[in-house]
Amino acid sequence: MTDLSHCAVLKAVKQQQASGQHTLPDKRQVAASFSKAAASYDSVADLQRAVGTELMTRLPALAPSRWLDLGSGTGCFSRALTQTFPESEGIALDIAEGMLRYARPLGGATHYVSGDAEHLPLRDASVDLMFSSLAVQWCPDFSAVLSEARRVLKPGGVFAFASLCVGTLFELRDSWQAVDGMVHVNRFREFEAYQRLCAVSGLNMLSLKVLPHVLHYPDVRSLTHELKALGAHNINPGRPGGLTGRARIQALIEAYERFRQDEGLPATYQVVYAILVKPDID
C-alpha cells in the first residue's frame, strides 16, 4: 500500500471523524474521563510508567520506519519510542483529545491523531510497530483491535500491548461488595479471553502472559484519589449513581482494612503483556 504521509493521516482522521466511528456512548465517556484527567495524570501514573517500561523491555529487536503509540495518553511512551528509534516516524493516537492537546507541546511523535483503536484511521500495512500500554482494556471489542492491528501492520510488524484482566483491584471490588454489593470497580476481560482472541487473530504470538503488579497506599482515600486523577475511576455501565454517603465510605474503609499489609493497603493490578507479530505472508 502507499506510504502514510502527513496529508494522508489528516485526511483519514477527518473521514473517520465525519463517519462518527468513535462516538459510541461508552467510548465518549472514556474519552471525556481521560481528557479531564490529562493535567493530573502524570503526577500519579506510577503504575502506567512501570508497565510501559516493562513492555518496552519486551520488544523484540526491530528497526521500525514508522511506529504507532496506541492510546498514547500524555505521550510518555511516545517520547520513549522516539528516543529508542530516533530515525523513525511516530504516530501518537488517542481517543481522548484532551490527552493529545496536553501531549503535543511536549513532543515525541511526528503526528498526533484523535482516533479509535477499533477503527484506526490508518492505511493498510502502514506501520512496523504498534505499541499500546494500558489502553486496550477500555476497548469493548478487542477482536476489532486485533483485526485493525493485522490490517495496519506491515508483514513482520509487531503489536506489543499491555492491558488489564480480571483480578485487577480485587481488594477494592471485594470491599465494596461487602458494603453494598454494587458495581464500583471497572470490569476487565478474563486472561483466557485474551488468549482465545489472540490465538484466532491471524497474528503470531511470541509471548502472552499475565503478571501481578501491586501498589500500596496509606489509606483508601489515597487509592480512590489516584484513580480519579488518572481518569480510571469507575466508568462501567451499572455503576451506582449519586453521591456516596459517609456511612458507606466508612464501611468501605473498614472492609478494606482486612487487606492491610506491612507496606500499607494493597491494590493489585493483573497486567497482561503480549507480543504479536504479523506473518510475512498473510
TrEMBL record:
What biological-process GO terms show up in the record? biotin biosynthetic process; methylation
What role does this protein play?
A: Converts the free carboxyl group of a malonyl-thioester to its methyl ester by transfer of a methyl group from S-adenosyl-L-methionine (SAM). It allows to synthesize pimeloyl-ACP via the fatty acid synthetic pathway.
Q: What is this protein called?
A: Malonyl-[acyl-carrier protein] O-methyltransferase
What are the EC numbers?
2.1.1.197
Q: Does the keyword Methyltransferase apply?
A: yes
Keyword annotations = Biotin biosynthesis, Methyltransferase, S-adenosyl-L-methionine, Transferase
Report whether Secreted shows up as a keyword of the record. Answer: no
Where do the Methyltransferase type domain residues begin and end?
A: 68-161
